[in-house]
Amino acid sequence: MITAPTRRRQALLLALAVLGTASLAACTAGPGSDGNQPRSSAVPADPAARPDLGRFYGQKLTWRPCGAYRCAALTVPMDYSRPDDGRTFVLPVAKAVSAAPGKRVGSLVLNPGGPGERGVRLIKDGVADDLGRGVRERFDVVSFDPRGVGESKPALTCRTEEPTERAEPTDGEPQGTPLHPRTDAERADALADARTTAADCRKASGALLPHVGTDDAARDLDVLRAALGERRLTYVGWSYGTSLGTSYAEQFPRRVRAMVLDGAVDPSLDWRQRMLGQSTGFRKAVEEYAESCAATIGDACPGATPEEIHALIDRLLERTQREPLPVDDSASGLDAAGLVSALSLSMYTPEDQWAELSEALRAADDGDGTRLAGLTTGGEESPDPEAEAEVEGESEAGSEAGSEDEADVPEDNRDAALIAINCLDVPHPHDAQAYWDALAPAEKAAGVYGTTGVTNELVCRDWPTGRGRPHRVNAPGVPSVLVVGTAGDPATPYGEAVSLARQFPDGMLLTFDSTGHTGYGRNACVDRQVEKYLISLTRVRPGTTCTA
Fold it and tell me: Looking at the annotation, which residues are catalytic?
C-alpha cells in the first residue's frame, strides 16, 4: 500500500529540486579539499551559554491563530560572530498543535528542502494531516521559513529594477541555449549569463549573501528549539533538509533527540562528484520513464514503445536547441535547458507526475511548450498575508539591515535562495576551465543532463565563498540518526544515503526500493519505520528495506 500525502508533495515538489530552469544543481562541496578528512573532533562549546546570545535563546514565542494553525516569529542574529550589532532576521514559524495533548512528547520540526522552500507554507498546506496518527497525537508539528527564505525578514532576491537583456540573435543563428557549449562564443555566452545572474543577486541582496548559509541556518534551528521549550530536537529533513540536519548534528550533537534525514546529501563529495552523481541519476530516471511508462500510466504515454518515447525526447531536444518552443504568455518560450529541467523535475514522484509529463510531451511534439514550461515552475504561490503580518512588527529583525535588502522581494524567492545558499555553502572553482574540463566526463556519464548540470554550476564561480569544505560527518555524542534512501532517487542518489548513514557514529539506513525522490510520505512501510523511531526511538534493523 502506498500512502500519498498529496498536499505535502505538491508543496515539496519544486522545492526539493536541485536542477532548475534558471538556477542550479546543488553545490554541496568545494574543490581543493580531501573529502575523507573530518572536521576537528572537538565538540563545539554550547552557543546557548554565550552571554551575547542570551536574548535570542531566552525569547518566548508568541503564538497567534493563523487559520487552523498557530503562527509566531523567531528573532535570530544575522551574524553569529557579532550578535550585538543590531542586525537580525525574523523567521516566520507555524505549528499544528498536537491532536492529543495528553500524549504529547514535544515538537517535531520539519524542513521541506530546497534550499528555498517555505516551512510555514508546508504547515499551512496540511502536512500534519498527512502524518501518521501516532505522530500527530504526540507532537506539535512545526516548521519555519529559514533565513532569507520566503517571508523571512529580510529576504533574498536576485531581481533588480533593470534586468539585463541578452542581445537578439542574428539571422540564421540558433536561438536556443546550447546544452553543451563547445565554441568560444557559446562558452562566453554561458559565462556572461552566469556572471549577470550573480551580479544581479549581489546588487539586490548583497548585504545578506554572507549570512544565509546552512551552518547559520542550523544555529537558527537551535534557537528555535530553545524557543519551543525543548531540551532536545526532534527533526525530519527532506533532501536539502538533510544538509541542514547534518550541520545541526555536527554543531549540537548532544541536543538531538531523534533525527530523520530523507534523500541524503553526502557532505564528503565535492561539487563535481555531486553534480555527476545527480546528473546520472536524472538520466537513468528518464530512461526508466521511457521503459516503464506503459506499465505505469498505460495509453497516456507519448509513445507506444520505449524507442518511440526516446525518439520524441530527442526530437524535442534538437528542436529546442535551434529555437525555443512557444509558451503562452511568454516572450522567451521554452529552450533546451528548460526542456531538460522539465524532464528532470518530473522524475521526483513518478506515481503523480508521469501522466502530466506525458501529456506535456505530446503537446510539445505538436509545437506547444506551455505545459512543459509549467512543469518547471510548479505554479505560482499565492501571497501569505498572515505570515507577513506575523513578521511585521513582531521584533526589530531586519530593522537595521537596510531597506535595500528588503526591496522588491517576489512572493516566491526560491530561485534566489537556491542560488545564494548553494553557492555560499561550498566554494567553486573561479577558473572557468575547471567547468569546461568537466563537460566531457559529464556528457559521457549523463548526456544532456550532465552538460546542463555543469553549466548550471557556473553561477557559483562568481559567488562569495563560505567556509565549507568536503568532509565526513563529525558529530561525536550524537544519538542514533535515521537516514532514508530511495534506491532509484535521481536527485539524491542512493549511494549518498548509504555513505551518510555510515558517517554518523550510530547511523541507521532504511532503504526504499523504488524510483522517485525521498521515501517518507510516499510509502506506508517507510512511514511506519520512521514514525516508530520518532515516537519511541525504535531502532531500524540493519538491512531493512521497504518496497513500493
Answer: 239, 489, 517
